[in-house]
Design brief:
OB fold (Dihydrolipoamide Acetyltransferase, E2P); Jelly Rolls; 3 domains; 480 residues; 19 strands; alpha+beta
Length: 480
Amino acid sequence: MWRFLLLTVLLLVLPGESRAQAPAGDPVVWEACTGRPGAAGPVLGDCRPVGKAIDPQGREIWLRGVVARPDDDQARALYVVGTAASEVWLNGRRFGSNGQPGGSAARERPGRYQIALPIPERAWRDGENVLVVRMSSFHGGLKLSRPVMGLFVAAYPLPATPMAFLAVVFAVAGALFAAAFGFGVIHMLRRTTSSLILAAIAGVASAQAVLESLRHLTAYAYPLHVWRLVGIWGLAAAFSILLVSWVVLRFWPGRRPAVIGGAAVLIVATGLAPGFDLKTGLALLVGAALSLVAAGVGAWRRTPTARLTLAYLAVFLVVAVSFPEWLVDLSYFLLAAALVLPLLMVEVVRLGRDDREREAALSRAAARPNCLTVASARGVERAPLKEIVAVVGADDYVELRMTGGRTLLHAARLDRLEAELPPSFMRVHRSVIANLDHVRGMEREGGRWRLILTEGAPLPVSRARAQAVRDRLDEPLGET
């Protein structure tokens, strides 16, 4: 894992393309004007400097800009990036359109989110040249603070997005899809909550990688752009909530409902931030920061792997804060892969180990039918069945509650133990198997049933199993 994290940091400090960087183009100072089409070109009046942003949302606007004739032979184009339809002229000569702008939604035909409109060489004049752009945006959906991200003249064609960049993103997306499939299979085999959460984490991150790169793959119609941004933020928020859920489940299970509920509120609240880049970045940072706190609790309690998880989350936050322009485009996907891929390898190794231990345990059980061979991180030991008071599910492990208040963690599934334990043991709850030899009785408290034991805390009884448990407790001694 550390090698992967080091590679991630190296990739992030290498120069590359950022979505916040527009290609260098010929400078154009835009003015907003009143305008109308004319026989010899647009007729403009009352031109004033454009403010902080060009905003055609819910209206039709006319823009005027002056640009010098290029002093080289390189072709030029007007590049339009934004949620708008547009029509353009140079020196009164119409040379292209992106959809068809209009004064209402019915009269507008939406264009593409980003497009290059080549400028004919014959349209240029010596000295100053007047560019006119007519724009409208009636189909954008949600209102954006920066609906037009780029309106500039630059060399045509522009260099394509570096293939190395897209190759890295799609390689990571493919690895995350594979991890999602792998954890899905593991969940089918082990039925653990952590494997299901990790499958969802990998699936969400891989889907966001594809959605984030969509603009490099296809020239989609501008009305889709807002919903693409909403989808990216929604997937980032889902990733963060799932990450918090996984870390809390593993290292702070006693506070799971409160922490996950609070995290969900804070992460969803990032949707109130201005700008979708900021919304998405904040959603990821809030989730990572809250997960860091939960992992810190686990490290303080000396929970296995808590320190490694804490280090991973610290790297995530350092990289995100140090290189914010890379967070949504690349580093988030690399860091997500750095989390799930090592965990997937660990789970695959564990499955193989569990199969071998299962065969060995069955052989030992045949020789010692009155003991349960317990496999845990501390080694292997035998637990006499008569000393087991209850078996409680704990995700990847089960907790054996023994007489005398002692507990043992056993790397086994509750479903498997239910089939292997003798008839004196009964499943009384989705996550609890009770040894009926240690049950004193059954009582109802607050609308729920529970078993009273000869020692230790009472055990919950699910409604669906309550009648069967009562029937077993009413059987004469010696019957099964």
